Every structure is written in structure tokens, then in C-alpha cells.
Task: structure prediction
Amino acid sequence: MDIFNKLRNLDAYPKINEDFNSRTLSGGVITLASSIVMLLLFISELSLYLHAVTETELVVDTSRAETLRINFDVTFPALACSILSVDVMDVSGEQHLDVKHDIIKKRIDANGNVIEAKQDGIGAPKIEKPLQSHGGRLEHNETYCGSCYGAEESDDDCCNSCEEVREAYRKKGWGVSNPDLIDQCKREGFLQRIKEEEGEGCNLYGFLEVNKVAGNFHFAPGKSFQQSNVHVHDLLPFQKDSFNISHKINRLSFGEYFPGVVNPLDGVQWMQQIPSGMYQYFIKVVPTVYTDINGHTIQSNQHVYFLQFSVTEHFRGGEFGRPSSLPGVFFFYDLSPIKVTFREEHVSLLHFLTSVCAIVGGVFTVSGIVDSFIYHGQRAIKKKMELGKFS
Result:
């Protein structure tokens, strides 16, 4: 019995006889309002508990010897597919010139309608007694082996199409000045095909796998090659003084897609106003790791600004007293040493219970203070009114 009496003395919630309770209208209104507030706050906290929250952390990027995927979808409304090439190079000295794999070209007309989609190249050769590498014409039982016009690396090399001749020239660092002097290009109608595509545009989409170091990739007319350690594009075959590099970036991203990412270059459009020039984008790339609620990790690389993007644009045209810039659209990218990690997590059960208790206790306490203030205020006013009647 003594134990029960001691426990009874520890009661922090002493009960008051109902005969001494006084219920008021203001108290009822405050009780109803506080109950609604408690319910709304509880629903908000429950929603937060049931849905994942994203935690962000900045760490030093220690990864090395990895590759970076660049996804792109770019439209050139005034450049034909037959003259556009894609090159990639980085600060380590590695170069990939005239990249064709994993890239699709779509010929489009002046209204933006697709004419043809193809991997690359001008067309297939039409073999009608073509010129052999030995100088004679193809005989009936003879295997075709076209001449490379001095660009062959060995006596056994063959160039059976205009594209193969141009590629052999590119490897040698030579330019093709007149395609009509090359039998393969003449048979395939290289110049005729370019004239037929005059006024067309081109949509290029695909991806590039590059080293995870600073570098650049660009879209430019003509086949590219190295000449005296200088990056050169062969523009002579196209017989044009200027190239319109107006373009629209439909999509540009680094790495895999993850939820909530914003790519500010998506949908960017630029129209050229002067005859020729070079348009440059300088991009700061931040390695990003996204881990979803199930623990699946996505390695991505996005930019910094708009949450993760940092892009600077610059147009460089020809100036007086200086040769004009190589026409094309260049994307220069640099990698940040800081890596951003996004991690989806659930709020813990203990955190949820603590928040619910805080909501109930806080609203109950505040409503009690408001009720007490109104109740005692009403009593004080009532007493003054009664004293005024008797005086």
C-alpha cells in the first residue's frame, strides 16, 4: 500500500473533480481550431515520413582512369549532313577525329522534316569498270582494289570508295582539293550529292565516350586531320566561302540521367548573323553520384549553376587583320575536383514519433495559453462592468 501511495504522489497529472470544471464558448472554439491544426500538421509529418527525402553531400572526387559519357542531340538547320563531322580531343593528347560510331545523322529539309536517317558517309560506290590501284580499269574476273592516290600506307592498301580515299588522306594529313579528280568520288557523285543537299539541315544525336579529363568536342564542316601538330578541317571540297553554324541543342548531358536533374543547355538555340565564325561553350562538369531509396547508385556528371550547371557562351568571328576562325560549334568542358552525392533516405520512425509528440504537445500548450488569456480577460472585463453598475 505504501508503494501505491508513493506512486500516487508522483502523479504529474492531478485530476480535478468535474463539479469544479467550467466550460466556455471560447474554449470550445479554441479546442476545435487546435484540433484542426494538429490534424493538418500530423498529415504533413506523415507525408514527409512516407516519402523519401534527398540528402546532399560534397566530397573530394578521388576517382581516376574512368570514362565519361556525353549524350547529345543537336540540330543544324543550315548545314548538310554530308559536310558535318564530330571530333573529340582532350588534354592528355588523345584525339578521336571524324567520329562515326554511336552517332546517327538525320537529313532535314527547310521545314524541319526528316528526309533520311543514316549512320554516316556519302553513299555506296557504283562499280562500272572503276579505276584500279595499278592504273587500269577493272577487268571482268578481277577483284576491285581502288587507288588511294598516294595516301596508301602499303602496296596492298585499297580505297574502294570516296570516303575511304578521304580517310586515307586524313590519316596522311592531306586535304582533298578537287574530288572530281578522284575516280571514286566522281563515280559516287560526291560534289553532285553536296549540291543536291544544298539548303538542307542536319540533326545529329548519339553519345561519345571520352576520358575523364578536360577536353572538347565539336561539330564542324569538313574532314579533320593533323598537320604540323595543328588541328585542321578540309573545307576545299565544298567550294564555299562561309558556313552557317546556326544550331539548336535539343539535349546535352554528361553521364546517366537521374531524377530532378536540370540541363540548362537543353532547348538552347543560336542563329548566326554574320557570314562565318566559331561558337564556343565553356562547361564546368561536376561528377555526381545519385543513390535512390533502394540503394541503386547512378554515376552522372552534370554542370554547376542551376543546381548543377555552369556554362559560358562565346562567338568568335573573323576580324580585320586576322584569319577567320574555324567554323563550327565547340564544347569545351572541364572537370571539378569536388563530387556531389545525392542520397534518397526515409525519415526514421523515432524522428516521426518525436515530431508527432512535438506537434500535439506544442499545439495543446499554445491553445491552453490562448484559452487562459481569453478566459481571464473576459472575467476581468465582466468584473469592471459589474463595479461600474454599483458605483
Observations:
- The CA atoms of residues 90 and 117 lie 29 Å apart.
- The helical segments are 2-9, 25-50, 162-172, 183-188, 190-196, 349-390.
- The mean pLDDT is 78.
